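Design a sequence for this backbone.
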């Protein structure tokens, strides 16, 4: 018998239907291991991307802080990590089209590290300010007047020689009966750029808004209804006051209290955009927009202290308190009761007696004058 011939089946050769190929077929019929490997790779890449972007944000944040904060040490015992702070926030109408510095937004914020909370008082732009040592006037006109006086002093003409930001801190500290530690001024050009960076904001426009002014290029033309607004439209939305004669038909007038409510609405929408994944990836560009359009007297290290202390503050931890008054042209008259309530809210925050309120509820319920 030829030993090469047997009744046994032939051995599997390469490419045949042997054991090796059967093993390969098993792997193809069990895709779960490959699927889980794919998921792990995706997760790993996501973690590495987020970690890399976090490093980028830290570097970008440091770059912005170095550009905006002042190069001085934080006084001993004054760190935002260990004591409450009060900050004056001004939004100026300083745009390329106007060159003016009217403050359409004036807010005072107190932050408490022990409660990780804040109280934000917003004052109408037309508030009548009557204080000893100051000429009676609208709130929004003091900052540009202080800047003009400082510029005159710089040119060795008549003037105070005190920076406008310091003058505003002194005046508002006296008006609200509270010591203001810092001031930050952001112009509307920066606001527009930040909104555009995040792809716009969602808003529910309550009524048609039309206003045209060829002198500064203003062209407000918003239709009622829920919609996404770009930077220019968002600025038009929060600033709209009344319709102009060249609008047909004329649209409903607004007031300081309505504007405060719209400011709150847009800010909340912007915060939602920032917290989204797509928003997070655009923070670097937003930081650039802010740094180019902001003036502050915060020390660089103090800015870092604030960011480290309040990085996880939530909407429910921020009490928004718009001050109301009575409109009698050309001023808004704020009564002692309303002013004292605002003063007390700021004092309560400083002393740790923060009372949380649902975001936007105060602004939404402000009565028209």
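Sequence:
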């Amino acid at each position: 018998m030829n030993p090469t011939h047997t009744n046994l089946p032939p051995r599997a050769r390469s490419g045949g239907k042997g054991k090796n190929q059967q093993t390969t077929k098993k792997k193809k019929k069990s895709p779960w291991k490959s699927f889980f490997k794919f998921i792990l790779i995706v997760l790993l890449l996501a973690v590495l991307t987020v970690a890399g972007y976090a490093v980028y944000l830290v570097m970008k944040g440091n770059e912005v802080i170095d550009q905006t904060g002042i190069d001085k040490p934080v006084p001993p015992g004054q760190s935002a990590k260990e004591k409450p702070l009060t900050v004056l926030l001004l939004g100026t109408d300083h745009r390329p089209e106007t060159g003016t510095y009217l403050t359409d937004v004036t807010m005072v914020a107190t932050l408490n590290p022990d409660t990780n909370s804040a109280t934000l008082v917003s004052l109408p732009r037309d508030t009548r300010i009557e204080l000893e040592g100051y000429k009676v006037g609208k709130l929004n006109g003091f900052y540009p007047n202080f800047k003009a006086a400082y510029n005159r002093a710089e040119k060795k003409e008549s003037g105070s020689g005190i920076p406008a930001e310091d003058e505003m801190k002194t005046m508002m500290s006296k008006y609200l009966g509270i010591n203001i530690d810092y001031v930050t001024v952001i112009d509307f050009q920066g606001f527009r750029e930040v909104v555009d960076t995040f792809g716009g904001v969602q808003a529910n426009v309550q009524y048609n808004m039309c206003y045209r002014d060829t002198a500064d290029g203003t062209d407000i033309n918003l239709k009622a209804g829920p919609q996404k607004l770009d930077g220019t439209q968002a600025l038009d939305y929060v600033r709209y006051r009344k319709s102009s004669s060249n609008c047909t038909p004329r649209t409903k007038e607004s007031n300081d209290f309505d504007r405060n409510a719209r400011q709150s609405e847009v800010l909340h929408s912007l915060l939602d955009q920032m917290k989204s994944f797509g928003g997070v990836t655009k923070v670097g560009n937003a930081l650039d927009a802010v740094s180019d359009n902001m003036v502050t007297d915060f020390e660089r290290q103090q800015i870092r202290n604030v960011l480290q202390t309040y990085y996880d503050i939530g909407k429910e931890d921020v009490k928004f308190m718009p001050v109301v008054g009575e409109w009698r042209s050309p001023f808004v008259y704020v009564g002692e009761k309303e002013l004292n309530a605002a003063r007390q809210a700021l004092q309560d925050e400083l002393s740790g007696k923060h009372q949380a309120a649902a975001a936007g509820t105060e602004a939404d319920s402000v009565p028209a004058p």
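Residues 163 and 288 are 25 Å apart (CA to CA).
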